Amino acid sequence: MSVDSATVRKIASLARIAVSDAQVEAMVPELNNILGWIEQLGEVDTSAVAPMTAVIPNTLRLRDDAVTDGDVRDAVLKNAPQAEHGFFAVPKVIE
Amino acid sequence: MTKLTDLGVAALRDGFRAGDFSAREVAVAFNDAVAAAKPLNAFIVETPDHALAAADAADADRASGNLKPLSGVPIGMKDLFATKGVQTTAASHMLEGFKPEYESTVSGNLWRAGAGMLGKLNLDQFAMGSSNETSYFGNVISPWRRNNGDTAALAPGGSSGGSSSAIAARIVPGATGTDTGGSIRQPAAFTGISGIKPTYGRCSRWGVVAFASSLDQAGPMARDVRDCAILLENMAGFDAKDSTSLDLPVPNWEAALSSDLKGKRIGIPKEYRVDGMPAEIEALWEQGIAWLKDAGAEIVSVSLPHTKYALPAYYIIAPAEASSNLARYDGVRYGLRELPDGANLQDMYAATRAAGFGDEVKRRIMIGTYVLSAGFYDAYYTQAQKVRTLIAQDFDKAWESCDLLLTPTAPSAAFGLGEKSADPLAMYLNDVFTVPTSLAGLPAMSVPGGLDALGLPLGLQVIGKALDEQSVLNASLALEERAGFTARPDKWW
Fold first, then answer.
1. Whether B433 contacts B272, CB under 8 Å
2. Closest to B333 (Cβ–Cβ): which among A17, A37, A88?
3. Are strands B74-78 and B43-46 parallel, antiparallel or unpaired?
4. 3-class secondary structure per residue, chain B
5. Is the pLDDT of residue B123 over 70?
6. CB of A66 within 8 Å of any CB in chain B?
7. Which residues, other chains included, contact B116 with Cβ-Cβ below 8 Å and sequence gap of 6+?
8. What is the ipTM of this complex?
9. Nearest to B127, CA basis, from B88, B154, B101
């Protein structure tokens, strides 16, 4: 499979990365080069193989359903580019 | 008297305990060495006050008889570990100025053990790279140069290139690294130092800036095997805050070090003899085999048939996980925000991510987004995870006839900065010997084996069974004792 500039634009939009026309043109051959190389995985017969889910066998632990953290609003907001009235602030999303 | 900066972790710890010097003298000596080594660009932030405060605490602890495992030892911290109140950037513009309100588990463990921090070490941006050329804060330069009069700047390897450069230049005695596909082992090999990636789950990932969570694993880098064992003991351990942390006791690896390999079988995987591998690396590998035989080990030939598929599988899985992990950088909660005039929320996300991420990071997010997108998920991602199963099974099968594997660490010695940065694929191929182990979650270590004709270090890699760091360290020690690697770069910085 190979990508064209429309596909690259679509991926960039899904990834929420703004790209210029020039950047799109540069990325098309670059991504195709990499995708062409990873394509070789198709040669491997994996019909009887389960996809890896954990490299080292481990079980997910459960803990008591109790509050263990919190009361750290100011610390959470400390690195926010814009915080107002104890909230993260973003550009208006409703007209 | 020996220069304090010539001492490694064990020598500093033991000399401090014996009263040969104070922790403050050590911290001052290393702080001065760090301040004088700016041309290497190994540090993003220097923290001399942190090192001095830990040293003063160590001196007080010694006076009151409360020595800790790393009292008197200052180290470098890769700038991928969140450090409370100290800028943590992952070498990205995206996190410039970010000062965490919390401490990563691994760094916290080290401070609790008495270590001090000399600074935050430079790296490839979000740990994506093999040459330390993707950092927003500039390339790290290796202290090594070719011996033919060529003064070209060489790559310290990546992504833990600040760590490797600083240790090789003897401006830190040891440092933390992280390894997703070889980021501890390849830089260690390029700079003539040692580094171990433990079994996945040994070191907590909590507070480590995430790249590919099923692969990311922290580990130590230092001048020798013993120093790595000491640091790893003080980094590892169960952490309830990391769901993949292994709930197992931390072995006393240093105390059990032994270079007697009688009864050990060392596998030599034939698929690692790749086309175009320099003859010097072949020769070093043969030499390594002879050294391990000399240490009492039996050598067996093994096959890891899916080796050639490890890199392409990695370059699906790692970018896929990265594209998910890096979705968090949205300009809302921390880090950079770009808000062009009149931009709405979606525009802000896209502008922020365009301005904050470097080219290699964007490339990997794009690939990850593509392979996870509707219609392609099974063909790429699921297939890669199945191949990953086969790669892990290859190792399981090999363990039926051997206890450890010996391979070269990297297919070449250090290359010059700029020599490979124009071709992402050529750069990716650097990790051909380290990636399979990462995909299988196994422990692996690189130790220096010798120099090539241009006077540059070459590394050997020992790979072990899951949780068997001890055998990996022991075989590495056997190599280290026989290699007698004492070469160090001439100071030019």
1. yes
2. A88
3. unpaired
4. CCCHHHCCHHHHHHHHHCCCCCHHHHHHHHHHHHHCCHHHCCEEEECHHHHHHHHHHHHHHHHCCCCCCCCCCEEEEECCECECCECCCCCCHHHCCCCCCCCCHHHHHHHHCCCEEEEEECCCHHHCCCCCCCCCCCCCCCCCCCCCCCCCCECCCCCCHHHHHHHHCCCCCEEEEEECCCCCHHHHHHHCCEEEECCCCCCCCCCECCCCCCCCEEEEEECCHHHHHHHHHHHCCCCCCCCCCCCCCCCCCCCCCCCCCCCCEEEEEHHHCCCCCCHHHHHHHHHHHHHHHHCCCEEEEECCCCHHHHHHHHHHHHHHHHHHHHHHCCCCCCCCCCCCCCCCHHHHHHHHHHHHCCHHHHHHHHHHHHHHCCCCHHHHHHHHHHHHHHHHHHHHHHCCCCCEEEEECCCCCCCECCCCCCCHHHHHHHHCCCHHHHHHCCCEEEEEEEECCCCCEEEEEEEECCCCHHHHHHHHHHHHHHHCCCCCCCCCC
5. yes
6. no
7. B23, B27, B50, B51, B52, B53, B54, B55, B58, B73, B74, B75
8. 0.96
9. B88
3 state DSSP class of A69: coil
**Which residue among A37, A51, A92 sits closest to B389, beta carbon to beta carbon?**
A51
Mean pLDDT of B373-395: 96
Q: Is B346 on the interface with A (CB under 8 A)?
A: yes
How far is it, in rounded angstroms, from Cα B440 to Cα B239? 21
Is B219 in contact with A40 (CB distance < 8 Å)? Answer: no
Least Cα separation, residue A66 to chain B (angstroms): 15
Give CA separation, B443 vs B74, B75, B110, B202, in Å.
Answer: 25, 22, 20, 10
Confidence of residue B316 (pLDDT cuts 50, 70, 90): very high
pLDDT given at position B274: 85
Yes or no: say if B136 and B87 are a contact pair by the CB < 8 Å rule.
no
Nearest residue to B226 via CA among B266, B264, B253, B193? B253
- What is residue B263's predicted lDDT score, i.e. its pLDDT? 97
Crossing angle of helices B359-372/A21-38, nearest 10°?
60
Distance CA B197, CA B75 (A): 18
Tell me the pTM.
Answer: 0.97
Which residue in B200, B306, B316 is closest to A55 by CB distance?
Answer: B200
**Yes or no, beta carbons of A93 and B345 under 8 Å apart:** yes
Q: Give me the sheet containing B43-46, strands edge to edge.
A: B43-46, B116-121, B74-78, B174-179, B217-222, B194-197, B444-451, B457-464, B404-408, B265-269, B298-302
Name the phi and psi angles at B73, rounded to 5: -110, 115
Better pLDDT: A18 or A69:
A18
Residues belonging to chain B: 493
Provide CB contacts within 8 A for B448, sequence distance 6+. Answer: B188, B189, B192, B193, B194, B457, B458, B459, B460, B480, B483, B485, B487
Hunting for tokens 């995708």 — which residue is that? A35
Q: Please report, for residues B33, B71, B230, the alpha-carbon distance to residue B250 in angstroms, rounded to integers and kept in the order given.
A: 33, 19, 11
Helix (H, G, I), strand (E, B) or coil at A66: coil
Q: How far is CA B351 from the centre of its chain?
A: 32
Strand partners, B302: B269
